[in-house]
Design a protein that fits this description.
single chain; mainly alpha; 131 residues; globular
C-alpha cells in the first residue's frame, strides 16, 4: 500500500492503491487474500516515479484494488477503505494529486505493517527486498 504513495513522492506520493468498498471477512483466509492483494499492489507501484505512471498502475490493477477493499479484515478496514477510496478518486478524476495526503501514507504504512510487508510488497526481513 505504502508503495503507491511513496513511489510518487516526488510527484505526489506513493500509496498502494485500492478501489472499492466492501465487507471484511474476519477469517485468516480473508487476511491472507487481503495481504496478497496488498503485496500485488505494492509491487505494481514500487518504483513508479510519476503521477501518470501511478495512474496507469492503478488502472491495470483495478480488480486487485476492488478485492483488497472487499477482503479487508475488520482490524484494518478503515485504513483499507481510505486507500481504496483515494485510488478510485484518482483513477476517476485522472489525477493523483489527492494521494499526497499524509493520512493516506500513514494508512498505507499501517496496512503494510498489519500484513508484515515492506513497501516493496515483500515480507519484512526479506534481505533481497530491503531498500
Amino acid at each position: 500500500m505504502k508503495r503507491l504513495l511513496l513511489s510518487i513522492a516526488p510527484v505526489v506520493v506513493g500509496v498502494s492503491l485500492l478501489v472499492g468498498c466492501g465487507s471484511s471477512p474476519a477469517t485468516s483466509a480473508g487476511k491472507a487474500q487481503f495481504c496478497q492483494d496488498d503485496s500485488v499492489l505494492d509491487k505494481a507501484t514500487f518504483g513508479v516515479s510519476t503521477a501518470d505512471g501511478l495512474l496507469q498502475a492503478m488502472r491495470a490493477n483495478q480488480s486487485t484494488i476492488d478485492d483488497f477493499g472487499k477482503t479487508a479484515p475488520p482490524e484494518i478496514n478503515t485504513d483499507a477503505q481510505a486507500l481504496v477510496t483515494a485510488a478510485k478518486t484518482a483513477v476517476n478524476s485522472n489525477s493523483a494529486a489527492g494521494l499526497a495526503d499524509p493520512n493516506l501514507q500513514a494508512a498505507s504504512n499501517r496496512v503494510d505493517t498489519f500484513c508484515g510487508l515492506n513497501s516493496h510488497g515483500d515480507p519484512i526481513g526479506n534481505a533481497s527486498s530491503t531498500a
